[in-house]
Amino acid sequence: MEARLSKPDSEPFQLTLRVRHPSMDPVDISRTLKIEAEHSFRAGGPRTSSSGSATASVHAESYWLGVLKPVVPLADVSFPGDHRSQIAQKQLAAATKGLSWALSLRTSRILGPHADFLRRVRTGGGDVTLLVTISSGEVSSFTLAPETSRLFGDLGIAVEFELASE
Length: 166
Prior knowledge:
By secondary structure, this protein is α+β, with helices and mostly antiparallel strands. It is 33% helix and 26% strand. The protein has one domain. The radius of gyration is 19 Å and the shape is globular.
C-alpha cells in the first residue's frame, strides 16, 4: 500500500520521507526523526480493507510516511535604513522557497544528523525514499547539487519525483 499526501496550496513543492522496513516500529521512526507520521502501520498489524472492515491478513512490513517541514527561517540580516540589505533579505527569502535550495538545506539539516539511523534502516532490510511532489506549473527547473546527491547516495536514500498537475 502506497500512501501519497496531497501537496499544500502554499508551496510549489512538498518533500515527504517514506520508510519501509520488515519490523521497525513506526513510533520509533517518528521519535528518532522527530517528525510525526502522516500515515503509518506496523509489520504484523492487522490490515483493514478499503471498506474499513477488518480482514484476516496482516501487514508484511512496517510503513512510515512523514512530511519534511520547511527549515526554520534564516535570521534577519537586514540593516534598518539600508535599502540594499532589505533587497538582499527579500532575495534570500525567495531562494529558500526554491526546490534546489530546499533539497540541499533540508537534506543536510534534517536527514544528515540521522545518518546512522537511516543506514540502520537499510542494513535491516528496509528502504528510505524522499518523495518530491512538484506542482508542474510553479517549478520550471531545479538543480540537484553534487553535495546533495552525494549525501542521498551516502545515506542510501532514493529520490522519487512526481509532477502534480494543477
